[in-house]
Amino acid sequence: MVQLDHAPELAGRFEVMAVPTLIVFIGGREKKRLTGALTKTELLAELEEFGI
User: Fold this and answer.
1) 2 inside domain
2) What is the pTM of this model?
3) pLDDT digits (tens, 9 = 90+) for 4-45
């Protein structure tokens, strides 16, 4: 987790336009981006393809 208030350069680097934003990286590459609040059920459903 990154607090963008403390590392605003990361928001620019990863083009984060809204909070919360979750970016899933595999092998150093972005595989999925989720923006906005999600319920636990929604989040788990979104991450299921990664075996999380």
Assistant:
1) no
2) 0.87
3) 899 999 999 999 999 999 999 999 999 999 999 999 999 999
